[in-house]
Amino acid sequence: MLYTTKGIVLHNIKYADKKIISKIYTKDFGLITANINVGNGPKAKIKSGVIQPLTQIECVISLKENKEIQQLSEIKCLFVYTELHSNFTKICIAQFLNEVLYKCLKEQSANDDLFDLICGTYQWLDKAVDNYFDTHIYFLFELTKHLGFYPVNNRDKINAYFDTLEGKFCSTTKNFPLGFDYWQSELFSELFSYSLSYQKKINRSERLALLDCLLHYYKMQIPGLVEFRSYRVMQEMVTEM
Questions:
Q1: Bridging pattern class, strands 19-26 and 56-62
Q2: What is the dihedral of CA 186, 190, 192, 194, to 10 degrees?
């Protein structure tokens, strides 16, 4: 049966001259794998440029139950980025978030809030004039809500140290990455008040520490999560800010 849905392209694998296997996170069906015939000629129904990673699309899918790879027959671009492919800092942030999504998302069902978070964050990043350098930190923290390990906001004078296995603040500290020290825990606790429109001004060392803490928290919560290739690029980018 044919369905029309919105989606965002996460990853492509070219396996023939005019064929692509694409991972797409959709509004109505969650994460799908789709077979796509592409071309650049005047008669091609789907141009290769429309199916690039990060592209927000509307597509027609022939969806069949119990089939791993679906057939995608029509695509149109829903949002044209103006800076996400030209501003170096924004490119680094967007590609890093894309890798996180590709490696962490496993959902096979609809999640409107998650879809809106993903598309809304990319659109906001594309349009932002300033105060966007910590978008990846905000996004990683928000994404934990949808991955099932959003931290408990219970930090006080007694429970001052974050435990990455328990996902909450405790009275005793554990060696990193099983837990955060007092300074790391304090920084981490401030993320509960973050939003896209309110990103607290932090210095380079704080930004690097938060990124490191968040990624190690992910690794403690997601078994078998492999290293992010774009992590080193993000570290280098932060040191230049």
A1: unpaired
A2: -160
**Would you mind telling me the total number of residues written for the chain in this entry?**
241
User: What is the Cα–Cα distance from 182 to 196, expressed in whole angstroms?
Assistant: 26
130 pLDDT band (50/70/90 cuts)?
Answer: confident
Which helix H or strand E contains 5, and what residues bound it?
strand 2-16
Taking the mean position of all CA atoms in its chain, how far away is CA 28?
Answer: 18
Q: Which of 42-46, 118-122, 148-152 has the lowest mean pLDDT?
A: 42-46
Residue 100, H or E segment: helix 88-104
Residue given tokens 């939003």 in the structure block: 195
**pTM of the full predicted structure?**
0.91
In angstroms, rounded to a whole number, what is the distance separating the alpha carbons of residues 70 and 63? 6
| CB-side neighbour CA atoms (13 Å) of 218 | 25
Q: Provide the pLDDT for residue 98.
A: 94
Which domains does the chain possess?
A: 2-77 (2.40.50.140), 88-239 (1.20.1440.120)
3-state helix, strand, coil in the chain (%, to 5): 35, 25, 40
pLDDT at 6 over 70: yes
φ and ψ of 221, to 5 deg? -100, -20
Q: Is the peptide bond before 177 cis (omega within 30 degrees of 0)?
A: yes
